TrEMBL record:
The lineage of its organism: Bacteria, Pseudomonadati, Pseudomonadota, Alphaproteobacteria, Sphingomonadales. The gene is acsA. Residues 531-609 form the AMP-binding enzyme C-terminal domain. One of its GO terms (molecular function) is ATP binding. Gene3D superfamilies: 3.30.300.30, N-terminal domain of ligase-like. This is Acetyl-coenzyme A synthetase.
Amino acid sequence: MTDADIYPVPTNWAKDARVDAETYAQMYGRSLADPGSFWLEQAKRLDWIKRPEIAGDWSFDEQDFHISWFRDGVLNVAANCLDRHLEKNADTVALIWEPDDPAAEPRRFTYAQLHAEVCRFANVLKAEGVRKGDRVTVYMPMIPEATFALLACARIGAIHSVVFGGFSPDALAGRITDCDSSVLITADEGRRGGKRVALKANADAAADHAPALQKMIVVKATGGDVAMQPGRDIWYHEAAAAVSADCPPEPMNAEDPLFILYTSGSTGKPKGVLHTTGGYLLWCALTHEVAFDYRPGQVYWCAADIGWVTGHSYIVYGPLANGGTTLMYEGLPNWPDASRIWQVCDRHQVEILYTAPTALRALMREGDEFVQKTSRKSLKLLGSVGEPINPEAWRWYHDVVGEGRCPIVDTWWQTETGGHMITPLPGAHALKPGSAIRPFFGIDPQIVDADGIVQTGNPAEGNLCIAKSWPGQMRTMWGDHERFFQTYFATYPGYYFSGDGCRRDTDGDYWITGRVDDVINVSGHRMGTAEVESALVLHPLVAEAAVVGFPHDIKGQGIYAYVTLNVGVTADDDLRRTLAQWVRKEIGPIATPDAIQFAPGLPKTRSGKIMRRILRKIAEGDTTNLGDISTLADPGVVEDLVANRVG
Ligand code: WTA
């Protein structure tokens, strides 16, 4: 690496940012040396009904495995995100909503208005029988009511489980059933890129396979024609008209569950990541303030979907806990054209933008004119999340979008971690395109080799583990605590294993290299290869399937499926299209395979294990370097796979 690849902290940031290099060193050091007092002090940024006296109480050891933070504290998340701002900031705009259609009017909600909306929503839930601890599934488009719904659950102590609006009825039904949720909040339809998304129709189809479901609360978003089932379905606007806007927040223990969010793992069905109340909220609030150097009054836009953890932590909980102004956008970054994202920045004078590399790569391809015809003068800081950002996209973000004046904050974290884990702080760290730079307060990253040996010294490369608990850590997998332990703590005893590969350079800066397990990161969305495989083998003509990731220019990784058909079935392009559609219908559009190769046989060891290493190489087009194939039951299949590669 040359010096030209290092971007020093700009002088004004070093001078004015909340955390400069010295403060970072001092705070980071204290957070590891004396976590108890460090975190009890940080906890003061929240409004507690009963202030905690215990910080972290945890052990990653199998014998004594437990994780808790602030377990003697009592608070309410919605009260922290709303009520406590009312005294001074009732008229501050909390939420700006930018509609899909650029000609439609944005909506704005002050803290006072948002508070009233959330209380009303909470009373509707109560009227439908929802109580503390009940699970409520949320299947919503990107409309303000989605935010109301989350905070309404938090207000009454119900556990929300948001299912991304792009998931299929089957995927939705599976998630409703897994957490035994009797209430679903949805909308008639969503809008995205000028098209309508049939959410209510999908929810109806899901309900047929989700016996636990008893009530559906339907928000009228587009006014589209939908069927309402009497006794089960309720229009939100009708129910809301019948309740008051006064709803006291439920006192919650810091360790009471706040939400479940399903995410893909390397094996089996999606797992319900569970986050709790106190530690999670503190983590969101602190990271949002420090990593983005957020100041109340600034318009902040996280362009994620509320269906992913980024939407939870950084559209809703972090910014609102900080009394900020959060922008929520209904549509797509490149619709009606590739200027839209920058036009939204201009329209609302966005100062901080947080988006994903996949969006940047897609926009970059359209050419700089789409950016340059907008002003973007309001932008001060640019964030990135979801996948490794390639240096080319990083430089484009920095030079073209930010005109060289905005630090790029590349935040590495996961659904499981609740919020940022490794990220530069804009006033403290010199930047390097593609590096997530340094651990956040309290985070003790360790790079471990395949044998579990911790790599001390720099440079180092291996698997990324975290040696100590942090407040935002997930607490369990819904309904399967044993799987929680096995998935994250069994591989390297005493450590949380992230599933990511990582390099630490000679300066001590961290570079995330991508997943080392069977999870593919498609456009910043996690997809388990096992999920796509099970969808494929459900098709009556398919005998067997193996799925791997391969490098994709825009998506980061694409989905490559090897499919063995039943004997006598003709393999042709029609069937290829049919199977791609099939997966789309089974899981959702994000799971659609980019390439399907028909394979008479898959490379298996004598014990029947598919050797994915070989399949990955072939999908990548790296067929000259397949390594040792002598352990295969039938090395002959490899030749056919190489010859019929799709690319
Ligand atoms: C990847 C999204 C490199 C990583 C917040 C992780 C990243 C997975 C970055 C989690 C980044 C996320 N640099 N890789 N800045 N951010 N990842 O659960 O592989 O949807 O394990 O959480 O995304 O995805 P998840």
